[in-house]
Structures are given as C-alpha cells and as structure tokens.
C-alpha cells in the first residue's frame, strides 16, 4: 500500500505531467521491493521504455554502478559489464545474477581516488558498447571516459543529471543529440531525471 507521502508525491507528479498516469501501477508495485529483487533499473519509466526499444540480445552494455539495472540488462542483452566501487555490494550482485555468463562485474574501490573505477572502460575498444549508463561515482569523469566507447548511434545515459555538480558532463557532450527525461521512477520518492545522449552517426 502506498503511503500518504507517496500518494501526495504521485498527485503532484500527475498534476505536472499527466502522461505519467500510465506508470502509476508499476510505480506502486515497485515500492514493495528492491531494484535487484524486481530486476528493474532505478531510472524513470520513460527511460526504461526507451532502453527496451534500443537493446537486443546482441547488445553490449557498460554500467558505472550496478543494481536493478544489471539484472534488467542481463535478461535482455548479450553482454553486461558493470564496474562497482563497493566490494560487498558487488558480491551481492554477483550472487543475484547467479553466474549469468553474460554479466561481468568488476570491483575497483576508492583507494586510488577512483582512478581504476573511472578508467575500467579503457580495457575495451572505442565504439564498442551500444549503451553506457553512468550512475555511480565520479560521474563527470566517467562520462568523459565513456564518450569514445559508445558506438555511433548508441546511447549514453547520465542518471540524476539535473544535479549542478554534473554540469561538466553536459558540457562534454554538448554536440550530441539529447533528451532530458523526468518522471516517475521505480523505488524513488521523488521524480527521477536522466539525460540520454545518442552519439552522432
């Protein structure tokens, strides 16, 4: 059952964006579980729908920061590479993926100022990934590293992109077509905002 606070939030979201009405049932259901249990990204539902339309069983995905999105991608794409800074959380993700051979979870902690975390994607060729999700530590630095690794026509996502400290990421990708998507998101008590860039062909 949604809380009074949750219902108040829901009403305010619908007043601002009636299109979000279509996501109400999913949003309420998601409040009773965790992203990993429900195998859902912690992203606005409209972003999840966009991803659904842009991935296939052959897609290659890289994530800076894992969770429900790792589960979601592992059910849909050919390769998921996730870098995590928290070894305990990484182990829980490995257990949740149950040895799925399509999923590779890398652990790089903060002992070096997150340098190995940020640079983990350098192990892959340029233009290798179809989708890259930046949703962990050092997001501006990760966006800078990710730009060359997403294929032309591929997607680069920055979650919580409205935060002022991530303005540098927007500057880095100023020439790329983008969508700023704000709306109901599973597990969040407030609107989620994600920017989705498509690398120019």
UniProtKB/TrEMBL annotation:
Cited InterPro entries: SAM-dependent_MTases_sf (IPR029063)
Pfam families linked: Methyltransf_24 (PF13578)
Gene3D superfamilies xrefs: Vaccinia Virus protein VP39
Protein's recorded name: Transferase
């Amino acid at each position: 059952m949604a809380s009074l606070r949750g219902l108040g939030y829901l009403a305010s979201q619908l007043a601002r964006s009636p299109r979000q009405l279509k996501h109400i049932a999913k949003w309420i259901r998601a409040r009773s579980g965790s992203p990993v249990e429900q195998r859902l990204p912690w992203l606005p539902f409209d972003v999840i729908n966009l991803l659904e339309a842009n991935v296939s069983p052959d897609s290659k995905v890289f994530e800076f920061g894992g969770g429900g999105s790792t589960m979601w991608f592992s059910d849909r794409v050919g390769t998921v590479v996730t870098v995590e800074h928290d070894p305990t959380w990484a182990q829980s993700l490995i257990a949740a993926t149950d040895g799925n051979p399509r999923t590779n979870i890398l652990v790089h902690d903060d002992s070096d100022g997150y340098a190995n975390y940020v640079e983990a994607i350098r192990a892959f060729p340029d233009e290798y990934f179809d989708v890259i999700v930046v949703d962990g530590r050092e997001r501006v630095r990760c966006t800078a590293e990710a730009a060359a690794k997403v294929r032309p026509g591929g997607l680069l996502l920055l979650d919580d992109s409205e935060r002022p400290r991530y303005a540098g990421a927007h500057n880095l990708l100023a020439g790329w077509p983008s969508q700023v998507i704000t709306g109901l998101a599973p597990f969040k008590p407030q609107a989620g905002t994600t920017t989705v860039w498509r690398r120019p062909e």
